[in-house]
Amino acid sequence: xxxxxxxxxxxxxxxxxxxxxxxxxxxxxxxxxxxxxxxxxxxxxxxxxxxxxxxxxxxxxxxxxxxxxxxxxxxxxxxxxxxxxxxxxxxxxxxxxxxxxxxxxxxxxxxxxxxxxxxxxxxxxxxxxxxxxxxxxxxxxxxxxxxxxxxxxxxxxxx
Length: 159
Hints:
By secondary structure, the protein is mainly alpha-helical. 79% of the residues lie in helices and 0% in strands.
C-alpha cells in the first residue's frame, strides 16, 4: 500500500499549496479589481479571465483534496446504521463511483482541451484548452486518492 500512499501524500501537499495560493491570489485580485473600479474608475480587463482560472483550480483541486481526506458528500446517517460489512461495501461502491466520475471528467476534459487548444482566452492570450487541463489533473488525483482508499478497504478486509 505504501507504493501509492507516498506519491499521494506528495500530491496532496502539492494540491493543498496550489489551491491555497489560488485562493489567496483570487482574494488579492478581487480586492485590486474593486479598488481600481470604484476608487480610480479604471476597471482592469484581465481580472475576470484570471479569476475564472483560479476558481476552476480552487474548486477542482479542493474536490480532490476532500476525496483524499474522505470528506466528500455522503449519506452518513444511513450508512452508520448498516453492519460493518455493509459499511465497507458501501464505502467500496462510493470509491468505485468516484473513480468512474474521475474517468468521465478526464475523458471529457481531455477531448475539450484538444478541441480548444488552438483558441485563445481573450485578453490573456493563453490557450483556451488550459481551462480544461486543470480538471484533467484533478481527475487523475481523485482517481489515485480513491484507489488508495479502496486498497485500504481491501487491506482491512484481509485482516
